[in-house]
Amino acid sequence: MKVLGAILAGGASRRFGSDKAEALIAGEPMLFHVAHRLSPQTDGLVICGRSWGSLRTVADRPRPGMGPLGGLAGALRHAGDHGFDLVLTAACDMPDIPPGLVERLGPAPSVVKGQQLVGLWPASLAAELEAHLDETGDYSVRAWMGRTGARQVEIGEVMSNINTSADLDAFTRRAGPRSSP
Ligand SMILES: Nc1nc2c(ncn2[C@@H]2O[C@H](COP(=O)(O)OP(=O)(O)OP(=O)(O)O)[C@@H](O)[C@H]2O)c(=O)[nH]1
């Protein structure tokens, strides 16, 4: 099975107050940490909803403004068009995603319990997700999980999700030198 890694990164960082994906952890932008952890688990990596460095950018589908699921739809379409079977997603604000997610999450569709933006999705769901977003106008991940029967997998590890500068401070204090990639 060929797996495409997709970093969902099209948000506005309103709660953080500045572009959180570029916020520094151990001297590197948060996106660097996500990419560094996602890349070895996948056969290719894209970034959804923004451009960053040399990573290939995938546009949201069916159009921008639909939240993280628009990024997932873009990634699923890209995966299907480029010979990938599965998409492993992570958000740009999860700097300590653990290894082995494909094995732990399989079989797809499935998400990490409590962190639904970390998920494993079959590329074959591309058209269904676009139709779902267009027809229902419901952009919630929960509704999409319900429609696809995505399993919620307890992975037994706490995963950080940085939404505010206080979250980042707490993460840095907790992780200490371990925050280095
Ligand atoms: N591709 C894509 N990603 C998105 C979109 N909206 C949010 N995301 C990503 O989804 C993840 C979770 O979103 P939030 O935590 O709400 O991030 P955010 O929207 O930047 O932050 P707030 O403005 O504070 O809600 C983050 O990695 C975002 O970058 C979108 O419209 N398209």
Largest sheet: 7 strands, mixed
- Domain module tally: 1
Low-confidence stretches: none
The helix content, as a percent range, equals 25-40%
CATH topology: Spore Coat Polysaccharide Biosynthesis Protein SpsA, Chain A
Radius of gyration: 15 Å
By helix and strand content, what is the structural category? alpha/beta
Q: What is the CATH architecture descriptor?
A: Alpha-Beta Complex
What small molecules does this complex bind? guanosine-5'-triphosphate
Account of the 3D structure:
- The protein is α/β, with parallel strands linked by helices and 181 residues long.
- The chain has one domain (3-179): Spore Coat Polysaccharide Biosynthesis Protein SpsA, Chain A (Alpha-Beta Complex), CATH 3.90.550.10.
- Helix content is 32%, strand content 21%.
- It has 6 helices and 9 strands, in the order E-E-E-H-E-E-H-E-H-E-E-H-H-E-H.
- The chain has helices spanning 30-38, 68-81, 101-105, 126-136, 141-148, 165-175; strands at 3-8, 24-25, 28-29, 44-48, 56-58, 86-91, 110-112, 115-122, 151-153.
- The strands form 2 sheets. The chain has a 7-stranded mixed beta sheet, with helices on both faces. The chain has a two-stranded antiparallel sheet with strand order 2-3.
- Helix 2 (68-81) runs antiparallel to helix 4.
- The longest helix has 14 residues, at 68-81.
